[in-house]
Amino acid sequence: MKMISVTINDVTLEVQENTTILQAAKKAGFSIPTLCYHEDLKPTSACGICVVEVEGSPTPKRSCSTPVWEGMKVKTNTKHLRELRKSLLELILADHDVSCPTCVANGKCELQSLAYTMNIDTTKITPLLQRREVDYSSYSIVRDPNKCINCGRCIQVCSELQTVNALTFSGRGFDSVVDTAFNLGMSNSVCVNCGQCTVYCPTGALREKDDTDFVWEALMDEKKHVIVQEAPSIRASLGEEFGMEFAEINIGKMYAALKRLGFNAIFDTNFSADLTIIEEGTEVINRILNNGKLPCITSCSPGWIKFMETFFPDLACNVSTAKSPQQMMGALAKTYYAQKQGIDPANIVSVSIMPCTAKKFESKRSEHSDSGYNDVDYVLTTREFIRMLKEAGINLKDLPEEEPFYAMSEHTGAGTIFGATGGVMEAALRSVYFLTSGKNLEDVEIKAVRGLKGIKEAEVDIPLKKEVADKVGADTFKAKVAVAHGLGNARKLMEKIQEQIKETGKSEYTFVEIMACPGGCVGGGGQPFGNSMAMRARRGESLYNDDRKLKHRQSHENDSVWQLYKDFIGEPGSEKAHKLLHTHYYERDQFKGQVVEEIKCKHS
Length: 604
Prior knowledge:
By secondary structure, the protein is an alpha/beta fold. The protein contains 19 helices and 19 strands.
C-alpha cells in the first residue's frame, strides 16, 4: 500500500493511501468530534460535526469520509470550526427531547457526551421539537422519534448489515424522521427484533421494551415462586458496568447478585445449552442416518428464526426443531422443576436474562406454552438487569462468589461458548463426534469455526461406531459445516444453499449455524450500549477462555442433563422430548412480518 505524507495541526506523519482524515488525525494523536460516524459502519457524513479545515479548500471537509492526499494540511480545532460545530449541535439539540436524567442512554449517550465536551448550554437553546408519538407496538423494541437525531445508523445497520430493511426515513428536510414503512409501527414491519438498531443508536431513540417493573412486582409477591436463568454471554459483559475488567467473567458474583435481588431459584441457561446440543445433535444424526433434510440449521437465535420465516420459508424444514436453550429451560421450570419441588406451576414466574431483544418476542410466541403455561414469562436484557442491580444498590464487583440454588445450573464449556459466533457449531461437533463414534475428540477446540469472518466453513471427518457404520455403509462420515453471523451473511449463505438445492437437489453442507447478531450473542441487541465489533471479539474470547478452565468441555459430559433424561424425559428425541423441547415454524409475509400459515415438515 502506498504511503503518503500529511500534516495534522502541524504534526507531519505518513499514512496509507485512502486513509480518511479522521483516521489520520487519530494516528497523529488528535480526536475529532463525531456523531453519526461509527467504526463498524461505512461513513455517511450525515451530521457534519466532524468537519475540518483543509489548506486550499474553500469549505470545511467532513473528516469521516474524506481521504487524505499527498501533502494535505489539516486543522482540526480553529475558531471557525468550533463555532460551526456548536451551531450544528445546537440545531440537533433544539429538535431533541433533552430528558437525559430519565433516558436509558444517560451516561452512554453520544449526543450528551458531545454536548458536554463542546460546552453547550441547553438552557439557552430555543426548543423546536414537535412531539411525535412513541412506538410501543413491538414486544421487543421501543422507537422514540423525539430522541432521534437522524444520524441514519439504525437504517444503515438494518439495511446493510442485517438486510432486513424494517426502517427508513420518512418526510423531508427538517420533518424527516426514522420510521417504519407506512408508519405502521415496529410490530407491523419486517423487523426481526434483533435489536442491532438499539446497539448502534447514539441517543436511546431505539431501546428495548422494559420489563423490569413486572419482574420487581413478581419478586415482591410472596405468593409467587420466581426463578431466573441467565444466558452464557451476559457473564462476558455484565461486569463492564461495575468497574470490573472488560469482558471479565465471574459467574459466582452473578449468582450472588441474583440471590440478593430475591429470586427463589437460580438456573443457568448454559445447562439448557448443553441439553440443546444433545437434542439437536441427535436430530442431526437421525437426519444423516434416515436421509432427512440437510443441512440441518441451528434454531437457537430467535432473530434468525423470524428472518427465516419471513425471507426463507422454503428452508424452514431444514431448520432444527429444537427449541432455544431459553425456551427449553422455561418448559422444564414449569414441569420437571415444579414436580420435583412440589410447586404449583401456576405460581411459578419464569424470568430469563438475555443479551438479546429478540428473546422478548420469542417468549411471547404462542407455540411456546408446552408446559401448559407461558414457558418464559419475562425476558430482561443485560441492560435491564444492570439497571435492576443499580436500583437495588448491588455492586457486582463487591460481591462474594456464591453458588446457584438448583441443579439445573451445572454446565460444560460447550454450553459457555454458545455465546460466541461458531460456539454452537463447535459445541455440537464435540458431541456429535462422540455420539457417532463412541469416543471423544482428542482436541475439542475446533478453531476453523471461530472468529469474526462473516461466513466460516470447515470439514470434519467423524469415525463411526459399528452399528452406525453398518447403516451408513462407511467407516467415516465427512461433515461439511458452515457458520454465519449477522443476517446479511446469513442471507448470502441461505441464497447459496437455495441455489445448490435448485441445481443438484441437495446442499454440500451437513450442519449450519446462524446467529442473527454480528459476533453472536456477545454482540446481542440487549448488551450494554457502545457495542463495537472489537468489543464483541474480546467478549467472545473471554468465553473461550472460560471454556478452557472447566473440567468438562463437552455437552454429553453433563451428568445433570443425563439425570434429567433418566428422571423425566426418557431418551434424546423421545416423544416427551419432542413435546417439551421441540417446536415448529410459520411462514410470514415480507411486508408486515405477520404469520401467513404454519409450515408443515416431515422429519425423519
